[in-house]
């Protein structure tokens, strides 16, 4: 079961964030999916997840997210990831800077009945803002 759960999480990272394939979200996320760290103004469900992916892919059209490590135990999968992209579109009111950024984070997903039902995330948002030059280093 652990390998199947890890495959679900890997798919959401690769298909949605790296390729922009939002249809994969409908296949991988449960109807009652909850993102416990959804940004302000973005709903915590599937529609919000798609909105979040769309926002980041519009801001970083070359976005690539690499899975660095994965650990699965019971109904949870932990993933350590690195995201890389070039800021070519507006992001939360920040005009494009054309700067390349590299950010890292760790996510935890809970799986039930073959779908992701809950998500928690911690990532280096401040580091991204520093790389974009909108806050001091």
Explain how this protein is built.
With 137 residues, the chain is an alpha+beta fold. The protein has one domain (2-132): Roll (Nuclear Transport Factor 2, Chain: A), CATH 3.10.450. It is built from 4 helices and 5 strands, in the order H-H-E-H-E-E-E-E-H. Strands 1-5-4-3-2 form a 5-stranded mixed sheet. The longest helix is centred in the N-terminal third of the chain and has 17 residues, at 2-18. The protein is globular and about 45 Å long. The N and C termini lie far apart (43 Å).
Q: Which fold name fills CATH's third level, the topology?
A: Nuclear Transport Factor 2, Chain: A
What pattern of helices and strands is seen along the backbone? HHEHEEEEH
Based on the structure, what is the oligomeric state of the protein chains?
single chain
Strand content of the residues, in percent?
A: 35-45%
The low-confidence runs, each spanning 5 or more residues with pLDDT under 50, are none
Write the layout of secondary structure elements.
Elements: H1 2-18, H2 23-28, E1 29-35, H3 46-59, E2 64-73, E3 76-86, E4 100-112, E5 115-123, H4 125-132
Parallel strand pairs: 1-5
Antiparallel strand pairs: 2-3, 3-4, 4-5
Summarize it.
This protein is of the alpha+beta class.
List keywords for this structure.
137 residues; alpha+beta; Nuclear Transport Factor 2, Chain: A; five-stranded mixed sheet; 4 helices; 5 strands; globular
């Amino acid at each position: 079961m652990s390998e199947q759960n890890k495959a679900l999480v890997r798919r959401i990272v690769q298909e949605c964030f790296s390729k922009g394939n939002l249809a994969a979200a409908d296949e991988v996320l449960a109807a009652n999916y909850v993102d416990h760290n959804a940004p302000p103004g973005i709903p915590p469900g599937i529609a919000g997840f798609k909105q979040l992916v769309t926002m980041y892919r519009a801001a970083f059209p070359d976005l690539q997210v690499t899975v660095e490590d994965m650990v699965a135990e019971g109904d949870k999968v932990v993933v350590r990831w690195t995201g890389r992209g070039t800021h070519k579109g507006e992001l939360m009111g920040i005009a494009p800077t054309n700067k390349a950024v590299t950010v890292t984070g760790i996510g935890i997903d809970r799986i039930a009945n073959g779908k992701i039902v809950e998500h928690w995330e911690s990532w280096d948002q401040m580091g991204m803002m520093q790389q974009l030059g909108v806050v001091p280093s």
